[in-house]
Amino acid sequence: MYIHTDGIIIKQVKMPDDRKMLILFSKNLGKISVATNNQYPTKNKSNMAMQSFNYGKYVLYKVKGYYYFNQGDILKSYYRIGEDIEKYACTSYVFELTDANLIEGKPESHLFDLLLDFLEVIEKRKKEHILLVRAFEIKLLASTGIMPSLNECVRCGNPHTNEFSMANGGLICEDCKEKDELILKLDNNIIKVIKYLENNSLRALENLTLDQKILEKLNYFMNIYLENYMGTNNMKSKMFLKTIIKK
Ligand SMILES: [Zn+2]
């Protein structure tokens, strides 16, 4: 019996005998591993649908609990992302981050729509693609329940502070912070930008750009936060992204 599903291939793993294991983010099945049987001719439509940066319709079958690829059709190709090194680096990182945050077999339709929005918008954006990555990260943090707490001191509720405690994942005031804590300055502009990115859809951000200084500060904060809360420091695509976007 065949299984039909819409999905995005977020990773491909080479297997012996020229076979591939596709990591498919399926809209209704969540993240699943799909084995391909054999080599397909290069121009075959199923082969095209196996490439990265596609939103596709896939036909699979299941044997002894394992998924196998039968055929695929491209619903929408975002191949132009691969033609721009910056967009490519950003999207590779977003895919790896998504992969790391999905549990095999657990549907995440909200996150699926978010990833699709990301592909749609980054393909069209003209510059500052990293801002879209930051917005994606913020929405991912919100959906996984580890958003930084940015309204008031996390310990006493004092609303007047611009210092952020990494260990506490939130703002902290002068009275509550401890000597050896990792504290970052977080001025109001950055807090406002983070909230703005959280509360607006990716599609609404297609033309948004930021003052360079603010963007640099946002990058600095987000990089440290994600390293602490999502373990991104070990991600290959993150290192690659850092070599492409240096600020
Ligand atoms: Zn306090």
Write the SSE topology.
Layout: E1 2-14, E2 20-26, E3 30-35, H1 45-49, E4 54-63, E5 66-77, H2 85-101, H3 109-124, H4 129-143, E6 163-165, E7 170-171, E8 183-185, H5 188-199, H6 212-230, H7 236-244
Helix pairs in contact: 2-3, 2-4, 2-7, 3-4, 4-6, 5-6
Bound molecules: zinc ion.
Zinc ion (ZN) binds at residues 153, 155-156, 158, 173, 175-176.
CATH C-level of the largest domain: Mainly Alpha
Q: How many separate domains make up the residues?
A: 2
Low-pLDDT windows of residues: none
Structural class: alpha+beta
- The CATH topology of the largest domain is given as de novo design (two linked rop proteins)
DSSP strand count: 8
The major sheet is characterized as: 5 strands, mixed, barrel
- CA radius of gyration is 20 Å
> How are helices and strands ordered from N to C?
EEEHEEHHHEEEHHH
Query: Which sequence of strands runs across the widest sheet?
Result: 1-2-3-5-4
In short:
This protein has 247 residues and is α+β, with helices and mostly antiparallel strands.
What features would you describe in this structure?
Helix 3 (109-124) packs antiparallel against helix 4 and helix 5 packs across helix 6 (212-230). The chain starts with a strand and ends with a helix. The chain has a 5-stranded mixed beta barrel with strand order 1-2-3-5-4. It has a 3-stranded antiparallel sheet with strand order 7-6-8, with no helix packed on it. It has 2 domains: 2-77, Beta Barrel (OB fold (Dihydrolipoamide Acetyltransferase, E2P)); 79-150 and 186-244, de novo design (two linked rop proteins) (Up-down Bundle), CATH 1.20.1440. The radius of gyration is 20 Å and the shape is elongated. The longest helix has 19 residues, at 212-230. The relative contact order is 0.12. The chain has helices at residues 45-49, 85-101, 109-124, 129-143, 188-199, 212-230, 236-244, and strands spanning 2-14, 20-26, 30-35, 54-63, 66-77, 163-165, 170-171, 183-185. By secondary structure, the chain is α+β, with helices and mostly antiparallel strands. It contains 7 helices and 8 strands. The structure holds zinc ion (ZN). Zinc ion binds next to loops.
